[in-house]
Amino acid sequence: MAALIRWMPGAFAAPRSAFAEMARLRREMDRLLESGFRERPFAPEAGVFPPLNLSEDDAAVYVRAELPGVSVDDLELYTHDDKLIIKGERRIAAEPGNVNYHRREREAGTFQRILSLPVHVSSEGISAAFTDGVLTIKLAKAPEAKPRKISVTSA
Amino acid sequence: MSEKELQVREKEPLATQAEHTRPGPVFSPPVDIFETDDSITVLADMPGVRPGGVDIDLRDDVLTITGGVEKTASEKERVLLQEYETGRFERKFNVSDRIDQGNITASMSEGVLRLVLPKAEKARPRKIEVRSS
Questions:
Q1: Cβ-based contacts under 8 A for chains A and B
Q2: Which of A57, A62, A133 sits opposite B112 (nearest CB)?
Q3: Using CB atoms and an 8 Å cut-off, which of residues 58-87 of chain A contact chain B?
Q4: Residue B76 at interface with chain A, using a CB cutoff of 8 Å
Q5: Is A114 in the B-facing interface, judged by CB distances under 8 Å?
Q6: Inter-residue contact A85 to A78 (CB < 8 Å)
Q7: Across chain B, what does the average pLDDT equal?
Q8: Contact predicate B54/B44, CB 8 Å
């Protein structure tokens, strides 16, 4: 029977139909999870543009952002108190002549993102490169933030 | 001058019937398509793709744009935060015989691909002069 049956916890039921009820519920949940829940573990939550990827090694922190079509002149980077500020504008040039758009999926606009860095960084050791629309910022860790090897002497 | 603030849009994974043989995620790049009297132009955002990494294939009236990205992070780096995935780009378009398929040009700059498909002669609007006899 495909009709929806109200599931009442603790309702009296012969064991067989209780199991059938559970199986039906499990099938419904599977279907719901499949359709509504995308397997994207890294989905940005509140979503401030641009999305960032952060990584580190012993010497530095690396910040990467995808900014296709942004000109270097429209990009500003600042650091202040272990915060990194990325701001700028993506422009889409108007095309010359008589133009008819069939599709417009790309967006233009301004952006500003303030990122708190997880470690102290030294203000001298910061470099940024922007190629093929990908911004890569390397921030050298402050000396006290680098892991220090402690030698152990045996007494 | 635009005052609008950019919003985050997640990358669109490629929905395809065929399975991918190479490993890694594949995304469908956002495009703008516009038409002028002489041509149709496709602009695609494919950040991280170098000019040499773009492949444009045209067969059976289907134009396939593929952009490969290289791994930028070295193996020694530990991930702290990952808000976007990287992967190659792919998108297909149907190209009619209105296009002069032998003269398609492509250029790539700042992660944006510009593909110009010139219209075949017969498809261009032609101005016909009326002479008084």
A1: 148
A2: A133
A3: 61-62, 64, 66-71
A4: yes
A5: no
A6: yes
A7: 84
A8: no
Residue A73 has pLDDT above 50, yes or no: yes
Residues β-bridged to residue B127:
none
Interface residue A13 vs chain B (CB under 8 A): no
Q: Which residue type does B11 have? A: K
How many CA atoms within 13 Å lie on the side-chain side of A69? Answer: 21
The dihedral sign for the CA sequence B50, B108, B48, A124: positive
- Reported as a single tens digit per residue, the pLDDT across A121-137 is 888 889 999 999 999 99
DSSP B6-51: PBP---EEPP-SSPPSS-S-EEE--EEEEE-SSEEEEEEE-TT--G
Strand order in the sheet with A83-90: A75-80, A83-90, A109-116
Condensed to tens digits (0 to 9), the pLDDT of residues A134-143 reads 999 999 998 8
Phi and psi dihedrals of A144, rounded to 5?
-70, -15
- pLDDT, average across residues A18-36: 72
ipTM: 0.80
